Amino acid sequence: MGRMEPHKCRAGIIDSVKLITAILTTLSLAGFYRSSVSASPSSHVQCIKQHSPYTGTFCSPGIGGRRPAIITLGGSEGGDGTSNIASSFAKAGYVASSVVYFGERGLPSKLEHVPIEPVRQALDYLAKRDDVNPDQIAVFGISRGGELAMLSATLFPQISAVVSVVGSPVGWGDAIDGEHGAWTFHGKDVPFVSTSQAWTSSKHTERFGNPTMLRKQLVRKAFFKLEKAHGPMLVIGAGRDELWDSASMATAAKKYMQSHSSCFSLTAVIYPKAGHLFWLSTDPVLQPSATTDVGNDPVVKDYVEASQDAWRRIFTFLGKVRPTRLTEVC
To answer: What are the extents of the domains in the chain?
Structure first.
């Protein structure tokens, strides 16, 4: 089988959105406050839209002293899709900011030849703030944003930790036809695997192929130099991912790090029964309580359980990240 037909891809996305809409309708998000966060929780969060030096939404927890900070990156939907996640991190005591890299005024209109410099601009902005510990700035990314988070960590030493949810350690093509580079750095395309080179006739015919099984030379060229990161990584994949094979890519990232010398670890977590959007089924801070009725739908239960566990792991992981100075040599 060749390339997936566009209507099949759209149908998969629509089905996922319908599922998540049903989940969010079913759930009551009035549950308990997470006790495992390392930063002090805050009820005084203030969020403002940023237009300079980068585009995004900046959220302050309203707590004194220098705080750990985190940047959030959305996926191929574009725009400011993770502003609500930045707000949730701020509620947990982090100085947080979403970063928009395409889909808003002054930025590329589509995910093609997108400069990654806005991430560095946000890092520089946060590091200069009096309420931020400049040695403790993490990046959180979802889907293509998870791909961008891992790429950024290999290029920007200010990043102390990375969380990639259903992302990729390999550079992929654009979100239009997959035949052009998605990212640029210093005006040059970041190496990538084009869509036509990635499709497979294996069990993943309805999604991206497993990059470890396809055109190994191209994959090696497009695999990010994860060993250059200046902090640990948590890479989360979904076993029933409808959009691409995030589970295999998380495993590939782990194997890559095991075969390369690095000062920092990469932890891969796979949720076998979760789909691409499973992380949306619970709020990062206000999660459903143990008594919340999620109905009898086993798929809904699988998504909720995976999401709850993932957010617990994310906050626990971030809580254990120690500040890493740029001059530190391990």
So the answer is: 6-320
Q: Which amino acid is at 5?
A: E
Specify the DSSP element, H or E, that contains 305.
helix 298-320
Instruction: Calculate the alpha carbon distances from 242 to 13, 17, 100, 143 in Å.
Output: 7, 11, 24, 12
For the chain, give the mean pLDDT.
80
H-only helix segments in 208-297: 216-222, 246-258
| One CATH from 3.10.180.10, 3.30.450.20, 3.40.50.1820, 2.60.40.1230 for 6-320 | 3.40.50.1820
Which residue's structure tokens are 């030096």?
A: 53
CA atoms within 13 A on the CB side of 236: 28
| Strand 95-98 versus strand 56-60 pairing type | antiparallel
CA separation for the pair 171, 183 (Å, rounded): 8
In terms of phi and psi (left: phi > 0; alpha: psi -120 to 50; beta: otherwise), the region of 14 is alpha
Residue carrying the six token digits 């993770």: 82
Q: Which residues contact 265 (CB under 8 A, 6 or more apart)?
A: 232, 233, 257
Sorting pLDDT into bands at 50, 70 and 90, what band is 213? very low
| More confidently predicted of 321 and 250 | 250
For the entire predicted model, the pTM comes to 0.82
Q: What is the pLDDT of residue 2?
A: 34
Would you state the structure tokens that stand for residue 313, as one six-digit string?
């792991």
Question: Which residues is 162 bridged to in the sheet?
Answer: 139, 233
| CA-angle at 114, arms to 195 and 15, nearest 5° | 50
* pLDDT one-digit tens code per residue, 151-182: 999 999 999 999 999 999 999 988 777 789 99
Instruction: Give the whole-angstrom CA distance, residue 296 versus residue 284.
Output: 23
Dig out the tokens for 42 from the structure.
């805050």
Residue-by-residue DSSP string for 94-132: -EEEE---SSSTTS-SSSSSEE-HHHHHHHHHHHTSTTE
The residue among 104, 145, 99 whose CA lies nearest residue 124 is 99
- Cβ(197)–Cβ(216) below 8 Å: no
